[in-house]
Automatic annotation (TrEMBL):
This protein's UniProt keywords: Carbohydrate metabolism, Glucose metabolism, NADP, Oxidoreductase
Pathway membership, UniProt: Carbohydrate degradation; pentose phosphate pathway; D-ribulose 5-phosphate from D-glucose 6-phosphate (oxidative stage): step 1/3
Top-level taxon in the UniProt lineage: Bacteria
Annotated Glucose-6-phosphate dehydrogenase NAD-binding domain residues: 13-184
Gene source species: Pseudomonas tohonis
UniProt-listed PROSITE patterns: G6P_DEHYDROGENASE
Residue ranges annotated for the Glucose-6-phosphate dehydrogenase C-terminal domain, each copy included: 187-485
Gene Ontology BP terms: glucose metabolic process; pentose-phosphate shunt, oxidative branch
Protein name, as recorded: Glucose-6-phosphate 1-dehydrogenase
EC numbers: 1.1.1.49
Membrane-traversing stretches: none
Cited function: Catalyzes the oxidation of glucose 6-phosphate to 6-phosphogluconolactone.
Amino acid sequence: MASLSVEPCTFALFGALGDLALRKLFPALYQLDRAGLLHADTRILALARESGEGGARLASIEEHLRRYVPEREIDAAVLQRFTARLDYLSMDFLHAEGYQVLAERIGPEERLIAYFATPASVYGAICEGLARVERARHTRVVLEKPIGHDLESSRRVNDAVAVHFPENRIYRIDHYLGKETVQNLIALRFANSLFETQWNQHHISHVEITVAEQVGIEGRWGYFDEAGQLRDMIQNHLLQLLCLIAMDPPSDLSADSIRDEKVKVLKALAPITAAQVAQQVVRGQYIAGSSQGKAVPGYLEEENSNTQSDTETFVALRADIRNWRWNGVPFYLRTGKRMPQKLSQIVIHFKEPPHYIFAPEQRPLISNRLIIRLQPDEGISLQVMTKDQGLDKGMQLRSGPLQLSFSDTYRSARIPDAYERLLLEVMQGNQNLFVRKDEIEYAWQWCDQLIDGWKQLGDSPKPYAAGTWGPVASIALITRDGRSWYGDL
Ligand code: BG6
């Protein structure tokens, strides 16, 4: 039985028949219901343009739910309760009439949560529509990424929403912030004095953040080709991870205290000029190769592709933070599609001890690393040096992990999907795990200069075979500084 109290609401899901809603949002809502975290009076309104019989649409939502929720987690009684909460309304989000019908289904005093799983270009029209029928007052709006494709367009979207909603009722999603291990980063850093004293340029040599995906474009070519890996992953997920690693301790856990600290990091990111882009940023595009033992096509041969595209599917870069804590500590970021495995991890490399007393040939072994694994096998591991056991070993050193594997330690507990956590937080009115307007804008500003740099240089993405760790230039990027990507096989 759940111990959290959650107030009742009407959850209006705009774009309810889209991939995100079917694959992630309905399953997340179902899981919240299963965990007893939806109030008995909470209703879910599925809103989409597709006309036709509502019953058939709801049946299709249920069918997808069965596909995306593991069979062992489908409970007949919960499913029945969940589907009874659902209702479907066909409406054109750009026309006023639909909002009138919508308003009739929501009482004027009801708490409405409006989730926009639509292109950002429609957000303004939805806000306007809700305001016109007087359903903006008790409403929290949830905005999916991408919010714009550069600073200017993101401002336009944010400004259009801000006409009707104050910042404290706007929830901008970055689903990485809902991942269990990402939240654990805050606990790790600020509930253990052990790390905080080491968390600076005196003790840390460099930081790596890798978000590698094994999948390719998965039928999303049209969307992805407009965006590319920099806009799709670095501007949001990787920069958010960087902020959580690099930020100063907030004075409390309130949303604004945390977000103020993250913004300071974004403001301190060293600009990368067009001349530096060639040295510090690598973009790649996958060509045919193999994945999990099977031949797979290149990006330009994917379904619905345009054979001329020079959109990147891989980015590796070196970011520097200009402040007292991080001066001289590079942050290497790397993300790509069609990598050898799905892997998201942060590796903090600590500096060597100031004075070395062991056998010289063992020196390359020496290093402490903190590895924070987001997926798969969520966990944290600290690589420490110990002595090898045995009379014949003398003072032979070995590097071994002090390990905290969340899946082993909390074996009985299921690790919730990021969207479950985020939807629950919206229902509770907590903004900690959502992105504030200024964070989005500073992140865009920093990414825009990289895109401008590529344009100025006429840079095209470097090819890499599907199933590899990206172009060789990505290895050169880090070896130039005398380092290597951790764990690449
Ligand atoms: C999304 C991107 O935000 O994150 C996708 O648009 C990407 O391209 C996805 O595949 C990765 O999320 P996760 O949780 O699977 O790492």
